[in-house]
């Protein structure tokens, strides 16, 4: 089976072809890069309307050149969660493409796709999943036919919390890679210094299985206003935020008895986060996997891969029931493609 996936929940217009027979994924993406500030929903939607037809055309042309006119067996699209104006453009494109190609339509939950791609690439059987993305942060575990939310942010997504600080200090979007670079530079300079790195005391908020990032963004902004060196703030921000995620991930492993952890989402590209999670898993004899970067940030490859599993399970959508859902939660999705598995 070959599935054409389309992603466009927020900033990344992306199309992909997944060939299940060879397990190969071709991805074409065109990111929206705001001139200043964060992601503006209207500008992001304007970007989607221009970029989606182009990335779809590139993938479809490559697919038909290799496999002929029947190159695509199904069209999968990110149905939510995300920005409504962007999702509607992607939904319209997917419906019309499925109609033109006369193939089934598959509606994919973007957050479940972030996590299923880790399960797919790792070959893990039944992992706990940590999604560390821009607009979200949650721990998921599979139980009784669904991905249950074991813990989640009570306010901002993890990437958005970091980006809030970088906007405050005037850095362009996305801020996460710049915080990572500044923290690494600060750490290596501090290592050469006899006193070592200074860890600022920032709010560390974990309540049961949930966590909060809004206080830490504000405290980091206040520290910048008070003249604390930016590298020290970036280092401290990462250490606190990633320790919160690692603590809750460890508790999720402990609660479920799972011995596999997969990481997903754009923030998962951060080396320090992966290092902390890998060390925690190592200490408890659990296996850890984070897919390669092209499958971590928003991408249509993960939509096409999960779309293929759903299509194979007959989990397709009639056009009349294919409305997008900006608040689509992962635990709303009946997991049709893992039949027979339960925790
Ligand atoms: P969601 O998937 O929840 O809809 P999103 O659409 O914002 O979120 P993602 O691609 O998952 O998209 O994540 C983007 C986020 O990842 C941004 O907030 C960005 O700052 C962050 N990010 C990217 N690279 C890094 C990095 N190296 N370290 C930390 N954060 C990073």
TrEMBL record:
Its EC number is 2.3.1.234, 2.7.11.1. Fe cation binds at residues 110, 114, 298. GO terms for molecular function: ATP binding; iron ion binding; metalloendopeptidase activity; protein serine/threonine kinase activity; protein serine/threonine/tyrosine kinase activity; tRNA N(6)-L-threonylcarbamoyladenine synthase activity; zinc ion binding. It is found in: Cytoplasm. Residues 27-304 form the Gcp-like domain. The keyword Ligase does not apply. Keywords: Acyltransferase, ATP-binding, Cytoplasm, Iron, Kinase, Metal-binding, Multifunctional enzyme, Nucleotide-binding, Serine/threonine-protein kinase, Transferase, tRNA processing. It catalyses: L-threonylcarbamoyladenylate + adenosine(37) in tRNA = N(6)-L-threonylcarbamoyladenosine(37) in tRNA + AMP + H(+); L-seryl-[protein] + ATP = O-phospho-L-seryl-[protein] + ADP + H(+); L-threonyl-[protein] + ATP = O-phospho-L-threonyl-[protein] + ADP + H(+). It is an enzyme of class 2 (transferase). One of its GO terms (cellular component) is cytoplasm. Residues 1-337 are annotated as: Kae1. Binds 1 Fe(2+) ion per subunit. Its cofactor is Fe(2+). GO terms for biological process: tRNA threonylcarbamoyladenosine modification. L-threonylcarbamoyladenylate binds at residues 131-135, 163, 176, 180, 270. Component of the KEOPS complex that consists of Kae1, Bud32, Cgi121 and Pcc1; the whole complex dimerizes. In the N-terminal section; belongs to the KAE1 / TsaD family. Required for the formation of a threonylcarbamoyl group on adenosine at position 37 (t(6)A37) in tRNAs that read codons beginning with adenine. Is a component of the KEOPS complex that is probably involved in the transfer of the threonylcarbamoyl moiety of threonylcarbamoyl-AMP (TC-AMP) to the N6 group of A37. The Kae1 domain likely plays a direct catalytic role in this reaction. The Bud32 domain probably displays kinase activity that regulates Kae1 function. This is Probable bifunctional tRNA threonylcarbamoyladenosine biosynthesis protein. It comes from Halorubrum ejinorense. The chain holds residues 1 to 343 of 579 of the full protein.
């Amino acid at each position: 089976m070959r599935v054409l996936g389309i992603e466009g929940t927020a900033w990344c217009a992306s199309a992909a072809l997944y060939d299940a027979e060879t397990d190969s994924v071709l991805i074409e993406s065109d990111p929206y890069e705001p001139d200043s500030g964060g992601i503006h929903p209207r500008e992001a939607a304007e970007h989607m309307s221009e970029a989606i037809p182009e990335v779809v055309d590139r993938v479809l042309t490559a697919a038909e050149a290799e496999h002929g006119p029947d190159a695509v067996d199904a069209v999968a699209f990110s149905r939510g969660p995300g920005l409504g104006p962007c999702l509607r453009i992607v939904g319209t494109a997917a419906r019309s493409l499925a109609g033109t190609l006369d193939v089934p339509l598959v509606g994919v939950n973007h957050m479940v796709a972030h996590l299923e791609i880790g399960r797919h690439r790792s070959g893990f059987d039944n992992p706990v999943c940590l999604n560390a993305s821009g607009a979200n942060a949650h721990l998921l575990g599979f139980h009784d036919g669904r991905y249950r939310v074991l813990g989640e942010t009570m306010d901002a997504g993890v990437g958005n919390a970091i980006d809030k600080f970088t906007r405050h200090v005037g850095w362009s979007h996305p801020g996460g890679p710049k915080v990572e670079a500044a923290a690494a530079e600060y750490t290596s300079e501090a290592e050469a210094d006899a006193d070592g790195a200074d860890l600022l005391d920032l709010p560390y908020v974990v309540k049961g299985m949930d966590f909060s990032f809004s206080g830490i963004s504000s405290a980091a902004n206040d520290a910048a206003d008070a003249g604390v060196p930016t590298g020290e703030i970036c280092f401290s921000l990462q250490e606190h935020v990633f320790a919160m995620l690692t603590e809750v991930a460890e508790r999720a492993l402990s609660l479920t008895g799972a011995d596999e952890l997969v990481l997903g989402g754009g923030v998962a590209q951060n080396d320090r986060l992966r290092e902390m999670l890998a060390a925690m898993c190592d200490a408890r004899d659990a296996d850890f996997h984070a897919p390669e970067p092209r499958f971590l940030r928003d991408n249509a490859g993960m939509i096409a891969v999960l779309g293929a599993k759903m299509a194979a399970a007959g989990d397709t959508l009639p056009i009349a029931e294919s409305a997008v859902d900006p608040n689509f939660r992962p635990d709303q999705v009946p997991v049709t493609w893992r039949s027979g598995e339960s925790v």
